[in-house]
Amino acid sequence: MRAATWHGPRDVRVEEKEEPTLASDRDAIVRVTTASICGTDLHVYRGELTVVPGTVLGHEFMGVVERVGSGVRRFREGDRVIVSAWVADGECWFCRRQLFTQCESVNIFGMGPAYGESLDGAFAELVRVPNADVTLIRAPEGVPDERLVFIGDGLATGFDAVANAGLSPGVVVAVVGSGPIGLMSGMCALLFGASEVLMVDVSEERLKFAESLGFRTVNASRADPVEEVRLMTDGRGADVVIEAVGRTVEPLMTAIQMVRRKGTVSVVGFHLHEYGVQMGQLWLTEKKLVFSIGDPIRNGERLIRLVSEGRLDPSRLVTHRLPLEEVPRGFELFERKEALKVLVEVSRGA
Ligand SMILES: [Zn+2]
What we know:
With about 350 residues, the protein is of the alpha/beta class. The chain has helices spanning about 40-45, 95, 130-135, 145-150, 155-165, 180-190, 205-210, 225-230, 250-260, 280-285, 295-310, 325-335; strands at about 1-10, 10-15, 30-35, 60-70, 80-85, 85, 105-110, 125-130, 135-140, 170-175, 195-200, 215-220, 240-245, 260-265, 290, 320-325, 340-345.
């Protein structure tokens, strides 16, 4: 089969790879119809995470069940499915409490061996999905892939960014970083009743795009974004700030400064490093700091309803559609921020 594999920093090749087989009776093999490049993939692309060379990249995808092991109960050949980026066993203490992203044996596609066994990812014709009864989400007929595929990762993350911030109607939300996750968080914040969502970014292009989706914007390259947001909120700061940049301490500190006293900073940026955060200031101002990874297993069905009813449409973020053979170009476009969401159209399905 054809697959896009990682061979070193910025060295992604589309090549022939052996087809996956069922390794356990709880596995399924999924024929990928649509996948998408996620911001987290960029960390792997750049070599910031240790990945076994030859690993198939990607973790945001959907498709059609090709084969199931004898222990799979809920799915069979031909079922249309969204695949959760996170793999969970469904049995441990955390899974029994629906806390799937903290599963004792959690794993993620296309990013190994960060979480143990290295699982081949989404940018391939076929993918082996462990614990299929837990990891697969049944997709409804009649809703196109481009609206469903992000439920397996990005949209679930945007949803948790807002749900875990305890967002209530009428609040002002600022989002630091108007990339795909920031925009999906903003869409969910409006759905949860935010009176206003302010998108903060340094990229003029991305801010223009955010404006086209109806968000108010703050250009952090022109003025101090903390001051700007204070001016827009009678000097208080935003009620909730979603940090959707990650990688370094700066966006996190900006978010902490941008939120009002007793407000909540909801972190969905990808952070690998430890930072010295001023806990004393957080205590004095009683600001809350919550972190979310995004749980498609827990919230998948709910997101499917919202998307099917047309209340959320993440396909508005799609700027590029490429075939599997052009995944390397997709990464280049995405890294240069020329693309927002790149859809990889792998096959037409069953
Ligand atoms: Zn578990």
